[in-house]
Amino acid sequence: MDREGRQELHYRALEGDVSGIRERLTAGDDVGLTDRQGFTPLHLAAQESRDGAVEVLLGAGAPIDLQDRFGNTPLWRAVFNSHGEVKTVKLLLNAGADPDIVNQAGSSPRALARTMGADDVTALLAEQD
Q1: Which of these, 42, 87, 98, 125, is most buried using a 10 Å CB contact count?
Q2: What pLDDT digit, counting tens, does each position of 57-93 carry?
């Protein structure tokens, strides 16, 4: 564990290293381990739109709606960093992510998408109604 409270699995997720993620999970790393900011490997993979990593982590039972210390879920991070791409958001929604969990700033993934003007993401989230 480093000074940020991250283990190797966090970095593999951040980099989108699918084989490295599988290796760490096989070695017994905790898929739901949080760092000092409350980020799980899924938060990091979602933030970086590492779709393969998101799929593997979800398949391993990663907590889908765990909030970091700012109240952000992996879905919120995926929406914030989507840049018009919806695949990561769609993966999380299909896994059961809740688009209406509000963070400490009072923003849910659904509200964030509207505020950002991310029309494709907003439309995808509207399908969840």
Answers
A1: 42
A2: 999 999 999 999 999 999 999 999 998 889 999 999 9
